[in-house]
Amino acid sequence: MSEHTTCVVVGGGPAGMVLGLLLARAGVEVTVLEKHADFLRDFRGDTVHPSTLQLLDELGLAEEFDRLPHTKVEQVVIPTADGNTVTLGDFRRLRVPYPYIAMTPQWDLLDLLADAGRREPTFTLRMSTEMTDLLREDGRVRGVRYRTADGDTGEIRADLTVACDGRHSLARRQAGLRPREFAVPIDAWWFRVPRLPDDRPSALSPHAAPGRFAVVIPRETFLQVAYIGRKGTDAQLRARGIEAFRADVAELIPEFRDRVDALRSMDDVKHLDVRVDRLVQWHVDGLLCIGDAAHAMSPVGGVGINLAVQDAVAAATLLAEPLRNGTVGTSDLAAVRARRILPTVAVQTLQRALHRGFVGPLVEGRRAGPPKPLLALVQRLPQLSVVPAYLIGVGLRPEHAPAFARRAPVAG
């Protein structure tokens, strides 16, 4: 079976859903393919940054988002040796409409975007539909082949294919695009513990000790923990077993001693193979890569989703008109990379510097916490906390909804 659409988006994550929604609001016929039957996948990035919150407002979706379960993170704090804390990043200092990071399950955000998309007549979301191959003719990508969960196969021909299928992108690989990879000294393990009434709900709380590092992320009914250790040690960590892991966590975060038993086995600890890479060229004729398919980010700073969403907004802004006119070409696709490459390189450069100067030495046991000069500086000049808050929460080039995509709030 062969079908046709103007734009086929491979992957229903934040970048794919935002791009699909915005293009549909421009009147572009767009089909989003998502290989899973639903969005209920845990231990994904669940941060919605100030710039993304403002985008949702511009799209008329802020009130709907506000009804979703979420917590507001207003600060990034670091514990000091004397038992106090230092505020490294203070989102409350930002002069933006939403001076905080909203922590909400990613499936709820994706469902919200999907519902908004379905209100547009040119939007189609195909769940349980996995891209299996690219269609090519005359040296140009002309769409995709797909397979459904029932085993049915077909083709969707399209003027443009956009790869939003993540850091292991099949579309990118089949297009022959290979990323430049950067050395990364860390991996991450995600788990959750119960949240108690006296837990501080409004701050991201890093904890550091020689050989490991953790960030506690407040959620509405539990605490999510990103445990950072040396790259390549997942097998060793699992071989030691859950009792040893519980002891490590309790030593690193003493207030968790009475709740680490919530980790029943190492199956409750999810491993993330941390990568930092970047395509030199984000496109071939007929295909564009954005988000993690174009640039995998470290979890340091939690900015990957924000950058992916910004890519999607830029792509929709630049490509809506040529897609409507049937004139989209390689120069249009190159313009997306040209617009987004500076913030991408800047964030990755900062992350790599943090890997070398802080996180790497810490997980290698050469440092027990943040550099003392840094702590002294932010203690002496607390107003500097706006700088990391801006880099994390807003970024160097925040994108705003194009005029064709803006809507009044949907009545509740």
Provide a brief overview of the structure.
The protein folds into 2 domains: 2-41 and 106-180 and 277-361, 3-Layer(bba) Sandwich (FAD/NAD(P)-binding domain), CATH 3.50.50; 70-103 and 186-230 and 232-273 and 365-395, D-Amino Acid Oxidase, Chain A, domain 2 (2-Layer Sandwich), CATH 3.30.9. Helix content is 33%, strand content 27%. The chain has helices at residues 14-25, 50-58, 62-66, 106-118, 170-174, 234-240, 242-252, 304-325, 330-363, 372-380, 386-393, and strands at residues 2-10, 30-33, 47-48, 71-73, 75-79, 85-90, 101-103, 123-126, 129-137, 140-148, 153-163, 180-182, 186-194, 203-209, 212-218, 222-230, 270-272, 276-278, 283-284, 287-289.
Estimate nothing, just give the exact number of structural domains. Answer: 2
Major sheet: size, sense and barrel closure?
8 strands, mixed
Assign the CATH topology of the largest domain: FAD/NAD(P)-binding domain
CATH class bucket of the largest domain: Alpha Beta
- Apparent shape: globular
How big is the Rg? 22 Å
Domain FAD-binding: 5-327
Protein name: 2-polyprenyl-6-methoxyphenol hydroxylase
Pfam family, one: FAD_binding_3
Keywords: Oxidoreductase
